[in-house]
Amino acid sequence: MTTTGELRRRLERTRGELRRRRVDGLVVSPGADLRYLCGLDAHLDERLTALVVPADAGPTLIVPELERGAAAESLAGGLDAEIIGWSDTQDPYRLVAASVRGTQIAVSSRMWAGHVFGLQDCGLQPRDGQGIMSTLRAVKSAEEVDALRRAAHAIDAVHGEIDQWLRPGRTENEVAVDLDAAIRAVGHARVDFVIVASGPNGAHPHHLASDRMIEPGDLVVVDIGGTMPDGYCSDSTRTYAAGREPSERGRRVHELVAEAAEAGRRASCPGVPATDVDAAARRVIRDGGFGAEFVHRTGHGIGLDTHEEPYIVEGNASPLADGAVFSVEPGIYLPGELGVRIEDIVAARSAGPDVLTEAPRELRVVG
Ligand code: ZN
Ligand code: ZN
User: Fold this and answer.
1) Which tens digit of pLDDT belongs to each residue from 189-202?
2) I need a labelling partner for 208 at 20 to 30 A (CA). Which of 83, 119, 332, 346 fits?
3) For the chain, where do the domains classified as CATH 3.90.230.10 start and end?
4) How many whole angstroms from 238 Cα to the centroid of ligand 2?
5) In CATH, what number does 4-137 get?
6) Residue 119's CB: how many other CB atoms inside 10 A?
7) pLDDT-derived band of residue 103, with 50, 70 and 90 as boundaries?
8) What is the CATH code of the structural domain delimited by 142-366?
9) Nearest to 342 by CA among 361, 321, 324, 357
10) Overall pTM > 0.90
11) How far is the CA of 86 from the centre of ligand 2 (A)?
12) Residues spanned by CATH 3.40.350.10 within the chain?
């Protein structure tokens, strides 16, 4: 679980970032940003819940009165934050304006537009806080890397038992229902997605699951992830062969993707531009003759959201931070025929790439 010491360090970094950018305060609504800064896992709705972090003072948490008890009992309660409950007859935006000590505010990018207009109507000048939040969240502390490793090992455990569920004669949906239960059983609080894409369905990178019956020799892309009780996410893909060896071409494609994934993982070092990790994986696939069939970026950052900075995409020249954690997930998609993707979560560390997911990557025949 995240500690209050860790949250205090995050708030201190936030204040530094606000001062550096000459912003008077940050206003964060429920979601991963709020959880990151004060540990509160709250709902986004029409009643304003917001953490106000002034550049030069302690934070204030503004919550509907009916949520005040829950907020005080959360980690936020141990943070020396002032917690203000507002009743349904009050204007919460005025409470924000009174807490922020200035008019130039940054707001979390997923705040509802209605709340942003409410803040504006109080004389505040909101701007997009995405840059501030991603600067903070893209560099994981040792505690966060540990949390992501626990999430990675949990999802590894599901892949480790795939034999129980994946076999020819079952539908993708049947397998997906079992995987859904397994993701919870290994300790996730929530299932975020279950992709079971067999045979030609594998050629659609974001196919979920259908009533297609899995056939012997199908390659089956299994991409699964969930959120752990502490809020950190898992995301891992393996491609299996159902029942028997796949076609010669299927085996060749799997080998190539495995080689590309390894090249991407190996390139994942601090200081390396994100685009270079993408290029390292892409080069292998292009040299193998399938460059046009690798149709997406190589990866995405992961933390309290499944998709966050840094994006491992061509053209992203930002160097990877020491402590950046992201997926490396090259794939090859042959329409009407098959798809293969292999996805691992990697932390860029000064000692070298730290691969958090460990489930075996070689092509396994299951079922
Ligand atoms: Zn995935
Ligand atoms: Zn992913």
Assistant:
1) 999 999 999 999 99
2) 346
3) 142-366
4) 11
5) 3.40.350.10
6) 24
7) very high
8) 3.90.230.10
9) 361
10) yes
11) 39
12) 4-137
